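#structure-requests
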Amino acid sequence: MRVKVIDEWESVLAGLGAEGKLKPRLSVTRGREYTVYGLSLHEASSVYREGVLTCQLVSDHGNLIFAPVNIFSVTDGKFPDCWRTEIRGGSVLIWPDIFYREFFFDDLSDGVPECVAAFRHLQSQLEGAG
């Protein structure tokens, strides 16, 4: 799946913030395309209003981030074969298996070698499918 940042993304993003929380900030570029690594819909969020569908993608700074799909247009809507759906505690997760590993996102952020290698492999799989 691939998405492209819409022109008015910053104003759309500002309107999606959870009431009384810090305004979300993202490192994405207007008009740029990104590969989507997963989708998630969370019942509650500390950043976005309830019911905002987010996609996981690599930001312009190289970090895996959760960004609301509302700031993108879909350029390729095909779901990768490696995604599977789970419902956990009020959240709907459509992710590759590695995202379901305990502490995956923390370990990736911390640069745990096995986790980084697994994510790089996923990137090569999904980038090659495009």
